[in-house]
Amino acid sequence: MVDLFSRNRKHSSVIEVFDKMRKAGYFLDSNVIALVLNAYRKLQEFDKANDVCISRCMMKGVFSLMKFILRR
Prior knowledge:
The chain is an all-alpha fold. Helices cover 82% and strands 0% of the residues. It is globular.
């Protein structure tokens, strides 16, 4: 859905679907995150894009730590 809305330049719909998926607990891949960041950029909502980046980095850090712990 995110890809479809992005292709049709419906940036507000991209963000709406992203928010619903995130609230539902889906783990989104980097391609979807890139589309969402682009949509925020097109809508000039840079603070929200920054929040997505920070939350994504925090999640990545947590998963990297879990992998390290499970390897031991």
